[in-house]
Task: inverse folding
């Protein structure tokens, strides 16, 4: 399978290729003959979680998945003349609903797309993660950790809404350039969100783009990125322009790594974009600072992030300390301590204040 297809396909593979903390996603090759290849990859994890909720004055113990759900993916490629046709389908499943749905579970498809590769680059058609905030999250040092409390279902949010928004898996047609000496350019059209309600129109698609540049300067590995999004939704009385820009820089040398990223947006709640009515084009911004050190099979991480949202009426801050230990290339142990706080901006009332200890294991293939 071409490296380019796998880079655009698997979240974990992309993070590994771009220098992220996820580690290599070693897909199992099932078939490879006469220019046609088929492979499968998997990601499985579980954490013991002990959380002290200071607002409600309760402490709970749980067994949950981490920030990344348990996933199995299937990849194919076929060489046809000067083109390579490829595709990926991945299924993401939670283990957090084991008592609510004892013999069932929530499964979603975040990637279901085909790719066409050639000398011109790559065109992707189907459903995949977005480009806005893509590298912000994929290069998060805690991608394979637990992170901040999230949805009511118990899903953890990592640093979503404490440093970056989520790059929603969306229907899209996206072009990626060939590698231009470390420079990579991606741009696409996406299904737009209805943010103005009944009787609305979105006369143009959502536009997203990302530029990344990687270079090695005498052992100092640098990766920088800039991404953005724009869309518009309107009805007879209201027009909401939603736009955002994300950015970041990662530097790594001799086992040390420093990452700084951020975003600024208008006309959306900085968690994810969806069909939800917005009252205004109020803005939001956030940043994430991280440092890590790798020593042998161990990686130590410290992380701090904030988001300030007028639209969502919240301020958040998130501090994490984590240790990742590689038992081998397919088996990882994780220990993380997370402190998260959220306030309502309009009232300055603390609505969430939690300290969380998460200890888990991850198996990949």
Result:
């Amino acid at each position: 399978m071409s490296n380019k297809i796998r880079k655009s396909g698997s979240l974990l593979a992309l993070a590994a290729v771009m220098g992220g903390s996820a580690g290599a996603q070693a897909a199992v090759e099932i078939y490879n003959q006469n220019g046609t290849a088929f492979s499968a990859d998997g990601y499985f994890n579980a954490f013991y979680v002990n959380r002290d909720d200071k607002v409600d004055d309760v402490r709970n113990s749980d067994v949950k998945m981490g920030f990344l759900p348990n996933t199995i993916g299937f990849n194919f490629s076929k060489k046809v003349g000067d083109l390579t046709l490829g595709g990926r389908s991945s299924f993401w499943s939670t283990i957090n609903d084991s008592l609510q749905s004892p013999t069932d579970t929530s499964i979603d498809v975040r990637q279901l797309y085909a790719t066409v590769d050639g000398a011109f680059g790559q065109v992707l058609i189907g459903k995949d993660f977005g480009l806005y905030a893509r590298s912000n999250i994929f290069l998060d040092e805690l991608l394979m950790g637990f992170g901040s409390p999230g949805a009511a279902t118990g899903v953890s949010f990592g640093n979503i809404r404490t440093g970056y928004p989520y790059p929603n898996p969306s229907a899209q047609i996206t072009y990626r350039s060939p590698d231009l000496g470390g420079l990579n350019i991606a741009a696409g059209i996406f299904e737009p969100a209805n943010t103005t309600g009944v009787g609305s129109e979105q006369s143009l698609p959502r536009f997203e783009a990302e530029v990344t540049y990687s270079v090695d300067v005498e052992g100092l590995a640098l990766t920088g990125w800039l991404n953005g999004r724009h869309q518009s939704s309107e009805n007879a009385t209201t027009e909401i322009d939603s736009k955002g820009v994300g950015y970041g820089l990662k530097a790594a040398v001799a086992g040390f790594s420093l990452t700084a990223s951020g975003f600024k947006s208008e006309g959306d709640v900085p968690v994810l974009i969806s069909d939800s009515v917005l009252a205004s084009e109020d803005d939001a911004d956030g940043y994430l600072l991280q440092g890590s050190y790798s020593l042998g099979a161990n990686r130590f991480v410290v992380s701090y992030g904030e988001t300030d949202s007028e639209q969502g009426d919240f301020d958040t801050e998130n501090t994490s300390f984590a240790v990742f230990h590689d038992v081998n290339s397919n088996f990882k142990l994780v220990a993380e301590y997370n402190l998260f706080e959220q306030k309502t901006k309009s009232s300055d009332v603390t609505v969430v204040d939690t300290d969380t200890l998460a200890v888990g294991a991850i198996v990949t293939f």
Observations:
- The radius of gyration is 20 Å.
